[in-house]
Amino acid sequence: MKYEAVIGLEVHLHLNTKTKAFCGCSTEFGKEPNSQVCPVCLGFPGSLPVYNQTALDYAIKVALALNCKVQEYTKFDRKNYFYPDLPKNYQVSQYDLPLSVCGFLDIELDGKLKRIGITRVHMEEDAGKLIHQDNSSLVDFNRTGVPLLEIVSEPDINSPEEAYEYLSTLKSTIQYLEVSDCDMEKGSLRCDANISLRPAGEKALGIKTELKNMNSFKGVKDALSYEIKRQAEMLDSGETLTQETRLWDVKAQETVSMRTKEGAKDYRYFPEPDLPPFIIKEDKITEIRKTIPELPKEKMQRFIKEYGLSEYDAKILVNSGAGSRFSEEAMKAFPDENKKPVANWIIGPLTALAANYNLQIYELNISPDNFIELAMLVEKDQAISNLTGKTVLEEMYKTGKSAKEIITEKNLAQISDSGSLGGVIEEVIKENPKSVSDFKAGKANAVMFLVGQVMRKSAGKANPKVVQDLIKKRLESA
């Protein structure tokens, strides 16, 4: 590559506290516009903020999980700018003394580990939301004052693929902490990207562009890919890049200029006079550190060791905290030492079913025990076929009934009795003399066609393994 991309990401994370950062207003999503506001979050004269203790605890928890150093002394600042969705005309944030610094997050891409530095994790409040329609704009202040964390990476990311993996790993880690739902559709997780190019092998940084309006991890990846191409073409043609903010246009699949990029001096930061500094003692940090659960990387290694899973399977199963708990309960309930069939059913049919209904696997109204009952009926007892098992799985979701109840009610049990299958097999053999001849001529695969015909005649109820064995015996004895 002629140029090297240098990328840093700024992730803004909603904390799932019941009330806002500095007042008692609800943070519940989707309520009537401007129904969850008060003098404090609207910035009325004389109103005074009090910081949410749960938000502080959650912030420390995230900082520790990202290997940051939590600072003993921290304070809030006012970040001054003017925008319709900012009723105070400043945002309460942190500038020179953030909550935490010097962390890192390890990612894995193409089998290689890479450490991405975390510059800082700091606390702030969210702004409101602008709704643009026709020739006017409306503002909803419900989101104003919702507690945010800003997680700023070092410029250690060098490709769109690394950025995607970093965001996926970060999201999974935060979901394990249960401090945010990380729902990008609700705005609970938002990402801005800073990107510049420099000639390969050089150390000096190029002119950076900040990218906004990316509503998915794929959007971040696509926007970065486009921007790399745009900047490379400008550099090749001798044009001068300017430091600016650009928006990602999803429909056009291109970035468009929004404004010249501001610097810290443009925001006129100064200490928030209505909030005292925080002294965070070591015993507080120790107490919160004890609440950090087993995180995805450690759980993945344990799944590989304890359940004999491949790294690929384990990585998928530990992607979310609640999903990994479901998976582990299911694997523990499966009596065989070989847990691969359970992993296959979770990664395959169960995940596909959840995706069809826009749910997570643990939201499907199917308990791990009922799920394993179904897996046992397919994998061990061969009471039903794999295909029928998928049908039963969906009925379990829709009705809440167990697999056995559904199989009995719908008469779905697989036929394995040789006496019941004998007549159908004889019919198929008489109707398909060419396949019989092919088998006797040494074409072993011909038997599978005959098996398929038996399955068709039995409406899929015949046990294919038993059918295959019976047909082979019948033809070999003829």
Notable characteristics:
478 residues; alpha+beta; Arc Repressor Mutant, subunit A; 9-stranded mixed sheet; 3-stranded antiparallel sheet; 15 helices; 16 strands; elongated
Explained architecture:
This protein is α+β, with helices and mostly antiparallel strands and 478 residues long. It folds into 3 domains: 3-288, no CATH class; 296-409, no CATH class; 418-476, Arc Repressor Mutant, subunit A. Helix content is 39%, strand content 21%. The protein is built from 15 helices and 16 strands. The chain has helices at residues 53-65, 160-177, 217-236, 282-289, 296-307, 311-317, 321-333, 340-356, 368-379, 386-399, 403-409, 418-431, 433-440, 446-457, 464-476, and strands at residues 3-14, 69-70, 73-74, 77-80, 90-93, 100-109, 112-125, 129-133, 136-140, 147-153, 189-199, 209-214, 244-249, 254-260, 270-271, 278-279. A 9-stranded mixed sheet has the order 2-6-7-10-1-11-12-13-14. A hairpin with a 4-residue loop joins strand 13 (244-249) and strand 14 (254-260). Helix 5 crosses helix 6 (311-317) and helix 14 (446-457) packs across helix 15.
Write the layout of secondary structure elements.
Elements: E1 3-14, H1 53-65, E2 69-70, E3 73-74, E4 77-80, E5 90-93, E6 100-109, E7 112-125, E8 129-133, E9 136-140, E10 147-153, H2 160-177, E11 189-199, E12 209-214, H3 217-236, E13 244-249, E14 254-260, E15 270-271, E16 278-279, H4 282-289, H5 296-307, H6 311-317, H7 321-333, H8 340-356, H9 368-379, H10 386-399, H11 403-409, H12 418-431, H13 433-440, H14 446-457, H15 464-476
Parallel strand pairs: 12-13
Antiparallel strand pairs: 1-10, 1-11, 2-6, 3-16, 4-5, 4-15, 6-7, 7-10, 8-9, 11-12, 13-14
